[in-house]
Each structure stands twice: as structure tokens, then as C-alpha cells.
Design a protein that fits this description.
heterodimer; A: mainly beta; six-stranded mixed beta sheet; five-stranded antiparallel beta sheet; about 50% strand; B: mainly beta; four-stranded antiparallel beta sheet; about 0% helix
Chain lengths: ~110, ~110
């Protein structure tokens, strides 16, 4: 079946370094993707999104890259800070009537001081 | 706006008990959702609603019921709690046609 998954369950980075979180999706019909951040004890929070007609989108300290050829999505966080420590989810959707987000399992980002 | 609020934050149920998880949003979103999150797993959609009086099943609806009498509220009902329903439950809402969902803080439910 179709699924959205993440390559690594945990990622540990040094404070100040850049972080790269990867996500593979298997539904080639998906045309919209979202990254969420979930801090401990809280609900997921929207970080950034990207549509399939784009390869790259930048936000504040975050960049999302989309490679449709290999169905791969990545989230880059520049100058990682302790406050970036959280679980990160990618989600995909094929937009249209009755479409629903499919969430990946999540990856834990741990920032070392 | 306070966003999406959920009560209670924590609850322990015995097998066979029932309870209602409350969810309220003040953003005037038409669309609302209930998810469960199990350890190491992605969010699974239980039920959703596109407006007052309209609800539909998601991926894992068995053992749950919902109602949507107002735009603001979307309660989730567990009638006969089972250990398999031990999970963290999240309510979310969104504007029609928008895919970004706003999540509540979650309810951690344990069934023993």
C-alpha cells in the first residue's frame, strides 16, 4: 500500500550545525507535502509546506527540498538550536475532494549543547 | 484566538468504561479531525467532519463515535474502552480547502 516513511528514527546534531531530516513517500500522485514539528507533550505544529510544482521552498531557518524523481522530501534546519529538539513528521496528500493527509512515523531530532 | 483545546489532558480508564474526549476550536474552521498517535507510529485518522451535522469515518474508526452539533465542538466518544485504545489522541481543525491542520495539545489515554 501507499505509505509515507522516514529513513532514520533519531538524529543527533551539535548546536549550531545544520540538520537534515529525510522523508520518503511512495504515492507518486501526492502533490502537496507538509512538515510538522511536535515538541514533547504538545500537538504537531506546522513548519513549512511545498507543492509538487516546486523543488525548494525556504522559510525562516528552514528549507524543504522535494525530489519527485525519487519521491524524496527533506527538511533542512540551519544553525540548529536547542529549541529545535522535537519529533518531526512529514505528511503527504493528493489534493482534491475527500483527500486526507497521510503522516509519516516521525523522527526525533536531539540537539547537543 | 486560543486555537484548538482538548480536555482532559490525561485519563485512565478501566476496560469496558466509556468516556468522551472534548475538542473545541475558536478559529471558525469548518473541518475538524480526530487522530490517534501510538508510539513510533504516524498519526492515524479516526473520524473527521467537514461541518456541523456532517461526520465521516477515517482510517481507524472502530470503537469510536463522534458528533458535530456546532462548528466549534467535535467530541470523540469511546463506548467500551479496550487496552488497544491506549494512545494519545489529537484533535485538529482546518479551513475548507486548506490542508494545513491546527492541532490541539492532545489527550493521553490509558486503558487498563
Amino acid at each position: 500500500g501507499e505509505s509515507v516513511g522516514l529513513h532514520l528514527p533519531t538524529l543527533s546534531v551539535q548546536e549550531g550545525d545544520n540538520s537534515i531530516i529525510n522523508c520518503a513517500y511512495s504515492n507518486s500522485a501526492s502533490d502537496y507535502f507538509i512538515w510538522y514539528k511536535q515538541e514533547s507533550g504538545k500537538g504537531p505544529q506546522f513548519i513549512i509546506d511545498i507543492r509538487s510544482n516546486m523543488d525548494k521552498r525556504q522559510g525562516q531557518r528552514v528549507t524543504v527540498l522535494l525530489n519527485k524523481t525519487v519521491k524524496h522530501l527533506s527538511l533542512q534546519i540551519a544553525a540548529t538550536q536547542p529549541g529545535d529538539s522535537a519529533v518531526y513528521f512529514c505528511a503527504e496528500i493528493r489534493t482534491g475532494a475527500n483527500s486526507k493527509l497521510t503522516f509519516g512515523k516521525g523522527i526525533t531530532l536531539s540537539v547537543r549543547p | 484566538n486560543t486555537g484548538v483545546t482538548q480536555t482532559p489532558k490525561f485519563r485512565i480508564l478501566k476496560i469496558g468504561q466509556s468516556m468522551t474526549l472534548q475538542c473545541t476550536q475558536d478559529m471558525n474552521h469548518n473541518y475538524m479531525y480526530w487522530y490517534r498517535q501510538d508510539p513510533g507510529m504516524g498519526l492515524k485518522l479516526i473520524y473527521y467532519s467537514v461541518g456541523a451535522g456532517i461526520t465521516d469515518k477515517g482510517e481507524v474508526p472502530n470503537g469510536y463515535n463522534v458528533s458535530r452539533s456546532t462548528t466549534e465542538d467535535f467530541p470523540l466518544r469511546l463506548e467500551l474502552a479496550a487496552p488497544s485504545q491506549t494512545s494519545v489522541y489529537f484533535c485538529a481543525s482546518s479551513y475548507p480547502g486548506a490542508y494545513e491542520q491546527y492541532f490541539g495539545p492532545g489527550t493521553r489515554l490509558t486503558v487498563t
